[in-house]
Amino acid sequence: MSVAKTRVAVLISGTGSNMVSLIEAGQAPDAPYEVVLAVSNIADAAGLDKARALGVQAVAVEHAPFGKNREAHERAVDALLREHGVQVVALAGYMRLLTPWLVRGWAGRMLNIHPSLLPLYPGLNTHARALEAGDQEAGCTVHIVTEGVDEGPALGQARVPILPGDTAEILSERVKAAEHQLYPQILMKFLNAPKP
């Protein structure tokens, strides 16, 4: 008897490299989840084609037509998630600040990966900031999404050494490789953990 897998949606804005690692890990027979939907706020995000190539339905819900009304855009995204029976949402390079409305609707069921060792360097330009600070290491954090930007409880981290001669771009590639391993591991651990 096979146990039903948790239905996961991945929200992206770009190339979807973390999304690909989540999809592929979820396709293993013993994985506790499967990615059933990829959603982007950018119509021509490269990640959408990657999702389709891996057999996952991929949809763009562009934010531009909604103007400054972020909640209206999120309501359209939320309707899509619910229509597909999504149970957990994974943000993977989704470059939109979420409103409290969406965060509350998925409280405790929305994860994000951030390219720094939170609470260090929330927000953008994390690698440049780590280099400027003279840090010995960088890394990434998977955390629960809360209303504050990159403030939710951390579920797991991966550490990456900063090497002599690193630029933000070189460091970014090394951290990205760590992200691709960490995110599926932490999502599985999160879903396998006993629920209170």
From TrEMBL:
Catalytic activity reported: N(1)-(5-phospho-beta-D-ribosyl)glycinamide + (6R)-10-formyltetrahydrofolate = N(2)-formyl-N(1)-(5-phospho-beta-D-ribosyl)glycinamide + (6S)-5,6,7,8-tetrahydrofolate + H(+)
Active-site residues from the entry: 114
Family: Belongs to the GART family.
One GO BP annotation of this record: 'de novo' IMP biosynthetic process
Entry superkingdom: Bacteria
Gene3D superfamilies given in the database record: Formyl transferase, N-terminal domain (3.40.50.170)
Originating organism: Brevundimonas naejangsanensis
Keyword check for Transferase: yes
Protein name as catalogued: Phosphoribosylglycinamide formyltransferase
Task of the protein: Catalyzes the transfer of a formyl group from 10-formyltetrahydrofolate to 5-phospho-ribosyl-glycinamide (GAR), producing 5-phospho-ribosyl-N-formylglycinamide (FGAR) and tetrahydrofolate.
HAMAP family membership: PurN
Keywords tagged on the record: Purine biosynthesis, Transferase
Pathway: Purine metabolism; IMP biosynthesis via de novo pathway; N(2)-formyl-N(1)-(5-phospho-D-ribosyl)glycinamide from N(1)-(5-phospho-D-ribosyl)glycinamide (10-formyl THF route): step 1/1
Entries under PANTHER family matching the protein: PHOSPHORIBOSYLGLYCINAMIDE FORMYLTRANSFERASE (PTHR43369:SF2)
Domain called Formyl transferase N-terminal: residue spans: 7-186
Top-rank EC class of the record's enzyme: transferase
A GO term for molecular function: phosphoribosylglycinamide formyltransferase activity
Residues noted as binding (6R)-10-formyltetrahydrofolate in the record, renumbered to the chain: 70, 95-98, 112
Enzyme Commission code: 2.1.2.2
Positions of N(1)-(5-phospho-beta-D-ribosyl)glycinamide binding: 16-18
GO cellular component, one term: cytosol
Site (Raises pKa of active site His): 150
